[in-house]
Write a structure and sequence with these properties.
single chain; 244 residues; alpha/beta; Rossmann fold; 5-stranded parallel sheet; 12 helices; 5 strands; 9% strand; nucleoside monophosphate kinase activity; coiled coil
Length: 244
């Protein structure tokens, strides 16, 4: 799928090229580019574990990541990182290739924070590359799950020049439960969140894209039970994986 390759920059070099193309028209792109240029290429992680939490909104990522950070005395990071978050609204209204370049850039900028933090403590991350990829794939594909690129397509591969996490946990919640949680929160919905709610096929494409990611793959965690139970499950998986 050609448009998909174009929508998802496969490397930091491709990203910088795309941001340069629109920097004259979008001042924020120049600012993101400046931050990206400061990041060393091929980040190396420290000795501490790097654990990513993925999932749709209202699957409990914020609650779980905070609790895991406290339990492991870790450092919590988010994508896109705060240093570029203020420009999110500017990019959300741009055409797909530019919007995706912004989110992809966030991952590379975040990677340099992960590299530094993982020399000091376990690193817990609320969304990373898999989110950028899953939402891009789901947006750029129409129709049902069967219409997604086949399972072993390279769109599901982690970029070679991006720092890899040790463990990726995908939180999933029953669709009705997720909608109730969103309503209880009463927050204003992002465009994508409104789409997830109104478009069952879109939601299914996002979740299936997460499941097809490889190298590293996502381990699924049912986040429907109570906060305490979900945390217990997550900590067991972490302990098992790292033999902590």
């Amino acid at each position: 799928p050609g448009p998909l390759r174009q929508a998802l920059p496969p490397s930091a070099t491709a990203l910088r090229h795309r941001l340069r193309q629109c920097a004259e028209r979008i001042p924020e792109a120049k600012a993101v580019l400046d931050l990206l240029e400061k990041c060393p290429e091929h980040q190396k992680k420290g000795d501490f574990p790097v654990i990513v939490f993925e999932g749709l909104d209202a699957t409990g990522k914020t609650t779980v990541t905070e609790a895991v950070k406290d339990n492991l005395n870790g450092i919590l990071l988010r994508s896109p990182p705060p240093c570029i978050s203020q420009w999110r609204t500017a990019f959300d209204d741009e055409p797909t290739p530019i919007k995706r370049a912004f989110y992809a850039a966030g991952n590379y900028i975040l990677a340099s924070e992960i590299a530094k933090a993982s020399t000091q403590a376990p690193v817990i991350i609320d969304r990373y590359w898999h989110s950028t990829a899953a939402y891009t794939i789901a947006t750029e594909t129409n129709g049902k799950v069967q219409d997604l690129p086949p399972a072993h397509d390279e769109v599901y591969q982690w970029p070679e020049d991006l720092l890899k996490p040790d463990l990726v946990l995908l939180l999933t919640v029953d669709p009705e439960e997720r909608v109730q949680r969103l309503q209880r929160r009463g927050l204003e919905k992002t465009k994508e969140e409104a789409e997830l709610e109104s478009n069952i096929l879109f939601r299914q494409r996002v979740e299936e894209s997460y499941r097809r990611m490889v190298n590293p793959a996502c381990q699924e965690v049912d986040a429907s039970p109570s906060k305490e139970e979900v945390l217990k499950t997550v900590l067991q998986l972490i302990n098992k994986h790292f033999a902590l």
